[in-house]
Amino acid sequence: MRRTIVTLLLLAFAQASAFAQGLPPYSYWKNQRGSEMKIFAVGPQGNFTGLYINNAPGYQCQGLPGFALSGRNSGANVTFTVVWNNGIQNCHSRTIWQGQMLNPSTLPTTWILVPASGPPLRGADMFTRR
Ligand code: BTN
Fold first, then answer.
1. Pocket-testing residue among 35, 83, 90, 107, ligand 1, by greatest number of atoms within 8 A of Cβ
2. b/e map 51-64, b = 16+ CB within 10 Å
3. Is pLDDT at 34 greater than 90 in this prediction?
4. Three-state DSSP string of the chain
5. Is the pLDDT of residue 14 over 70?
6. How far is the CA of 82 from the centre of ligand 1 (A)?
7. Which atom of ligand 1 is nearest to the CA of 92?
8. Of 57, 50, 55, 110, which Cα lies nearest the Cα of 83?
9. How far apart are CA 46 and CA 120, in angstroms?
């Protein structure tokens, strides 16, 4: 019995430690709209870069080659931005996502899409690690 409890505690600790590491580098995520996000390196201060492929119906700046993203991860908190200009397509807008990791493979976010002119748009995206 004692051994089982110790094993369970060790497992819980191992899971908590893995999660404490934050956003996994070189990870691939997809949201409920079909958009894809590739996280490259995550620096020691939590700064990260990546690639965002927008597949969300009803929006511009779709598909490949994608758009650079940059962000910051601190604990469970994740913030990242895409400027929708990759030199091929320019939507004259940017999106900022903010969220808290629920677990190592679930990142619910809210976002604000800011066009160069006109009112901002707000919404929510749920990213799942694939
Ligand atoms: C634009 O239409 O001005 C640029 C593309 C915006 C795509 C938005 S960002 C929030 C939402 N989540 C996605 O994955 N795509 C849309």
1. 35
2. bbbbeeeebebeee
3. yes
4. CHHHHHHHHHHHHHHHHHHHCCCCCCCEEEECCCCEEEEEEECCCCEEEEEEECCCCCCCCCCCCCEEEEEEEECCEEEEEEEEECCCCEEEEEEEEEEECCECCEEEEEEEEEECCCCCEEEEEEEEEC
5. no
6. 9
7. 3
8. 50
9. 27
Smallest CA separation from ligand 1 atom 6, residue: 59
Residue with the nearest Cα to atom 16 of ligand 1?
56
Query: What distances in angstroms separate CA 101 from CA 49, 75, 128, one per listed residue?
Result: 17, 9, 10
The residue assigned the tokens 């677990």 is 103
Buried-state track 100-127, b at ≥16 Cβ within 10 A, e below 16: ebeeeeebebebebbeeeeeeeeeebeb
Q: Does the C-beta of 35 come closer than 6 Å to ligand 1?
A: yes
pTM given for the model? 0.87
Q: Would the pLDDT of 20 be above 80?
A: no
Please report where in the chains the tokens 């996000």 appear, as a residue: 37
Q: Is the predicted pLDDT of residue 73 greater than 90, yes or no? A: yes
